[in-house]
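To: structure desk
From: M.T.
Subject: fold request, one chain
Message: Could you run this one when you get a chance? Sequence is below, nothing fancy, just the single chain.
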Amino acid sequence: MPRFFSRLTSACTLLLACAAVSLPATAEMDSDTRSLVEAAMAGEHRSAANRARDEFRKPLETLEFLGLDAGMTVVEIWPGGGWYSEILAPVLREKGRFYAAQYDLNGPFGYQRRGLGAFLTKAGTAPDIYRDMVITEFEVPYKIDIAPRGSVDMILTFRNVHNLVMEYNGGGRWADLTFQVMFDTLKPGGILGVVDHEWDDVENEDPLSANGYISRARTIAFAEKAGFELAGESEILHNPRDTKDHPAGVWTLPPSYAKGDEDRAKYEAIGESDRFLLKFVKPAG
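Reply: Done. C-alpha cells follow.
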C-alpha cells in the first residue's frame, strides 16, 4: 500500500500532500475546551520536563485536529507515565469522562511496570486533577474491557502501534485484536486518534519495528481491517531533521537519549522523532 505523503519536492507531490493534510476540514475547537486544554498545559501538576515536550508534541493542535470536546468520554490506550493524561484528565474532569487503559498490573516488561508505577504515583500526588479518572487494564488478548462497549466518543493512542508489532508482542499477533477492541468500544461515529514514529517507506520497513518506527500505511491497514474509515491526516508532528538511522533506534532521540551523553547535542538538535497523526472514524451506519 503506497504511503499517502511523499517527501519528494516535486510540485505534484506537494499538491497531494496539501490536499491530504486538509482532508477533511477539522472543526475549530470550542472556546471552553480550548481554555481547559491551555489551562491543563500550564498547570502546576506538570513538570518542567514534560512542559518542554509541548514544543514537539503540540498537544493543543493535535487534540484540536482530532476534534476533542470537554464533554466527551475518552479512552487513552497505554498512557505509560501519563504525559497526555496530565492534559486529558483535567480537561474531561467536569463534563466528560476519562479512562486510562493502562498496562496490566502484572505486566512482564520493565517499561510497563515503570510506566504504571509513575502513573499511579502521579495520580496519587494530584488527587484533585485525577479524582474522576477511571483506570482500566489493557493486555490483549486477556484483558480487553477498557471501557463499556459502544460507550466511548474518542480513543487516543500515542506512540503505541509500533509496540504491537515488536517481537516481544508476538510480531503483531494481537494487533488486529487491539484495533478491533478499540472499534467495538467506540460509539458509531466515534473517533480514533493515532500518533506514532513514522517510517517513510512501507517497502523497506522492519516488520518487527525494532527501531521503533512504523509506516502510516501499515497503521491505516490495521485500522481499516477493523472497520475504521480514515477521516484525516496531519503533518503537524513532522520533523524533517529526523534521519531515522540512529544507533539505538528512535530511542536515541529525546526524551529517551538511549546513548546517554554520546552525541547528545546532535540528538538534542534533531528533537523528538518524525511522527504521523491519523484520525479515524467508526462508521455511523
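Reply (cont.): Residues 70 and 92 are 5 Å apart (CA to CA). Let me know if you need anything else for the meeting.
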